[in-house]
Amino acid sequence: MKVKMLSRNPDNYVRETKLDLQRVPRNYDPTLHPFEVPREYVRALNATKLERVFAKPFLASLDGHRDGVNCLAKHPKSLGTVLSGACDGEVRIWNLTKRNCIRTIQAHEGFVRGICTRFCGSSFFTVGDDKTVKQWKMEGPGIGEEEEPLHTILGKTVYTGIDHHWKEGIFATCGQQVDIWDEQKTSPICSMTWGYDSISSVKFNPIETFLLGSCASDRNIVLYDMRQATPLKKVILDMRTNTICWNPMEAFIFTAANEDYNLYTFDMRALDTPVMVHMDHVSAVLDVDYSPTGKEFVSASFDKSIRIFPVDKSRSREVYHTKRMQHVICVKWTSDSKYIMCGSDEMNIRLWKANASEKLGVLTSREKAAKDYNEKLKEKFRYHPHIKRIARHRHLPKPIYSQIQEQRVMKEARRRKEVNRLKHSKPGSVPMVSEKKKHVVAVVK
Amino acid sequence: METAPKPGRDIPPKKNKLQNKKKRPQRYWEEEITPTTATASAEPPPNKKRNGEPRPQKPKNTHTPKKSRISKKPQFLKKPRGQRNAEPPRSVSGAQDPFPGPAPVSVEVAQKFRRIDKSKKLPHSKSKTRSRLEVAEAEEEEISVKAARSELLLAEEPGFLEGEEGEDTAKIRQADIVEAVDIASAAKHFDLNLRQFGPYRLNYSQTGRHLAFGGRRGHVAALDWVTKKLMCEINVMEAVRDIRFLHSEALLAVAQNRWLHIYDNQGIELHCIRRCDRVTRLEFLPFHFLLATSSETGFLTYLDVSVGKIVAALNARAGRLDVMTQNPYNAVIHLGHSNGTVSLWSPAMKEPLAKILCHRGGVRAVAVDSTGTCMATSGLDHQLKIFDLRGKFQPLSARTLPQGAGHLAFSQRGLLAAGMGDVVNIWAGQGKASPPSLEKPYLTHRLSGHVHGLQFCPFEDVLGVGHSGGITSMLVPGAAEPNFDGLESNPYRSRKQRQEWEVKALLEKVPAELICLDPRALAEVDVVSLEQAKKERIERLGYDPESKAPFQPKPKLKGRSSTASLVKRKRKVMDEEHRDKVRQSLEQQPQKQEKAAKPVGARPSALDRFVR
User: Fold this and answer.
1) Which member of B370, B371, B510 has the closest CB to residue A39?
2) Within a domain: residue A400?
3) Domain limits at B339?
4) In a domain? residue A302
5) Where are the stretches annotated Disordered (chain A) (predicted)?
6) Contacts for A59-62 with beta carbons within 8 Å, 24 or more apart?
7) For chain A, what is the domain count?
8) DSSP structure string for A241-282
């Protein structure tokens, strides 16, 4: 007879002293871990609930401006510095870590229409209603010195926007036409026009740095190549586009913030159909900015809210609002992709977390592991109705909520009418126009 | 001087040496080779694979089964990064790595950790979804290999008992085993002579550390049976029908003559649950925190012990219920009835999930093994049957016992114990997941009284038997899972660890509604509601947004794009599509005919499910 009984030595399973860690032997045999899927589901449900519990995105409000904040700019080299221009011509530079204003400049008379930093971070440019372009030093004046711009260019018309080249000492302004300036010269290198309308914004492409995009109030978006004297092509939409923003990761993708409550992501190689129509706002979209990862963008709207959209989704993943925030005029995603800043009508700049439930600060390795595990679980079970409902739920202010309901009814009615028309006409005589194609009027080359 | 040992070349001479020295004794598992059911826990951990290795051999390893090593031959080396050379690179010192590459993993062990069924074809879906599914599949495969490789680290090996040549293990008495094993194991065999308080029911806690028992005449006691430290001992002055630990050893449910009572480990009565009256059997579902009670009145009641609410009270409509067991794989309750059927219940359904006709007489006992694949039943017709719970509940094997078994229990490694009068028989199978073969018992034991309750102790090679003479703790080598998981149920856990585990377990309490026959169903696509949603969408939109647009031929170069040629090309594509459709429908037709052919004939009988 040969016999062996299972006989464990407790010394192998119990810690020796109280200072040791507890011993936890593992065995990953599935029969020892029954109900794997239901337990993971419950964990995913708990993680989703906790995510909503900890969703506290609002971080700080920077107050000090004496009029609505009209434009914002990031510092290219310092994460903690941000510049803002107000409607009374004042420019302020803020320290985000201390959350205070470190410098105030009375830059223009009337609105500061646009502000941009030089790529090296040593100076910045502002344009205003007083038909001037001013270049300022980033550092403040020494003791006894007066606050004065480095250069001032007096123009003939009002400038409505400015953007700096990403690599060279060249910047572009817009107004009646798009002007491209050399920093050293007082007259533009070239001026480009297409039609006779006022252009509201101009943006350099961060990758293909000689490309520019602009949008004008005659409903079109025009693309330029700096190396040519004439514009490249333009696309005409249903309504006016307020600004555009280039994707920092994909050179040919840009997103346009439109008056018709939608945002359109275009591929500049095929402008006749937008890649994606992003709808969720209930009023005109005023500004848009990409995350440095190029996967998401944030949009500011006249409906007193900002929303975060994934690039490939037509619906927003997040909406931020507060009781006191009025029409949001400008928005920026910080360069570490963690925060969002928005400037609004009621003179405040607000700082938000890009990921509402993210824990700030250094995470221990166990916290990080738990976070990763929860993320994976949430991803795995995200389509389950109960989890989906919790993850999607957002509280909205009443005006926005009722507007959404109203617009849903309107849209439904429109679609019903369309379907009826299709049903009662000769097959093929009424074309089915997709939502993407509906809003593009024409592409001109 | 000898050079560094090279794997492969060094092994044969050593083997010869071994054989020259001494003839190897015949091992009982060397007679039959079952390549299909070789699983990891039946095999030794693969770290003893290379014998030619200058590694100190532990005395423990001397009984390493040789045959299983051969059965593990089909191994594949995982090559995660690029191609590996056949010749391992030599280091500066000229020494060669005796273990080049990652540790080999046997296919069967990796198969155990598979979660995605690869035999199912991927759904015909959009390329994006498809590629995501493919990525998930590849990831899953890699993970299963890693998990299988981690089996190397398991510290303990299962016990075993084998006779000499021609010796029947069933003839081996408990006293012989006790004599042969070490002192610590021998101490696990004990008898409690408690003749006064009549037949006993008993229950081990989840970790296998604690034992509670209750006698028909009211004696209730709980003890740490390893150290033999008594936790409490009371007399409830009422008949005790059944006893069960709740999620931890601190709480104890006792089914008494009238009502269900809950005691703590001091013997203090915490609750008296009057909504569960005349309870005959108790089952605790540890992951759902549900206490299932079956009563004389024919009700199956689920009590949520974490909140103290009754989740469901189901009327089985089959008279008195006194045969109940749970399926540990899917938490379904199996009830045995006097008409020979076993019904399967979940709290989410008012009706049984399934009814299985098992015996010609009433059902006396039911047990389900830990993998949820087989169910053993015994009935008044003196039959002991084993059913396959996957698929159509077909009987795998049956055997007539002279007395018929009144109590059944499965061990963690698939041993089946049956109590027949005052005798306990234990049958063993080939491996862990295989059903026990009923031909020859593995062990038998005669007790001093009639058996009234049976349970294998989790994580110990011990079978606890409650009988009219008291409690007997039997040694059954090879019954229990040798390697426990410290985060699930740890017999050596401290108080702090138990408290932490309790909080975690409560946080992930599985809702009672999720109990169903297939616990993995939650991770699969709900095809029915998906198709319903699709249909509704089409109705709402007035057209199918995912339908393919009709083929429109592209205009060709100048001169080639006449109307006639356009029509011709269009026709060609249409004909091809039509042919595809016809081909598909032709393929489906014979299947339909087969399906239609079956129900022809007389009325379907309940026994049809046994037709192979």
Assistant:
1) B510
2) no
3) 172-501
4) yes
5) 418-437
6) A59/A339, A59/A351, A59/A352, A59/A353, A60/A96, A60/A99, A60/A350, A60/A351, A61/A348, A61/A349, A61/A350, A61/A351, A62/A94, A62/A99, A62/A100, A62/A101, A62/A348, A62/A349, A62/A350, A62/A351
7) 1
8) EEEEEE-SSSTTEEEEEETTSEEEEEETTBTTS-SEEEE--S
For residues B114 and B142, is the Cβ–Cβ distance under 8 A?
Answer: no
pLDDT digits (tens, 9 = 90+) for B96-108: 888 888 888 888 8
Inside any domain, residue A359? no
Q: Is residue B69 part of a domain?
A: no
**Neighbour count for residue B234 (Cβ, 10 Å):** 17
B287 contacts chain A (CB < 8 A) = yes
In chain A, which among 6-25 make CB contacts under 8 A with chain B? Answer: 6-8, 10, 12-14, 22-25
Residues 6+ apart with CB under 8 A from A93: A81, A82, A83, A101, A102, A103, A104, A138
Q: How many residues does chain B have?
A: 612
- The verdict on a CB contact (< 8 Å) between B162 and A423 is no
| Contact in structure between B290 and B510 (CB atoms under 8 Å) | no
CATH of the domain at B277: 2.130.10.10
Nearest to A5 among B40, B159, B481 (CB): B159
Which is more confidently placed, B104 or A302?
A: A302
CATH code (residue A113): 2.130.10.10
Q: Is B150 on the interface with A (CB under 8 A)?
A: yes
Determine the pLDDT at residue B5.
43
Any domain includes A108 = yes
Among the partner residues A2, A25, A422, nearest to B162 by beta-carbon distance: A2
- This model of the complex carries an ipTM of 0.85
Q: What are the structure tokens assigned to A433, written together?
A: 């126009």
Please give the residue range of the domain that contains residue A341: 59-353
Which residues of chain B lie closer than 8 angstroms to A13, CB-CB? 490-492
Query: Residues 396 to 455 of B: which have CB under 8 A from any A CB?
Result: 412
Is residue B305 assigned to a domain?
yes
Residues of chain A with C-beta less than 8 angstroms from the C-beta of B113: 28, 30
Which residue in B307, B337, B334, B303 sits closest to B320, CA to CA? Answer: B337
Contact criterion met (CB < 8 Å) for B482 and A6: yes
**Phi, psi at residue A425, to the nearest 5°?**
-120, 170
Q: In A, which residues are within 8 Å of B40 by CB distance?
A: 29
Task: Give me the number of domains chain B comprises.
Answer: 1
For B312-325, the pLDDT digits (tens) are: 999 999 999 999 99
As given in the structure block, the two tokens for residue A236 are: 């005409």
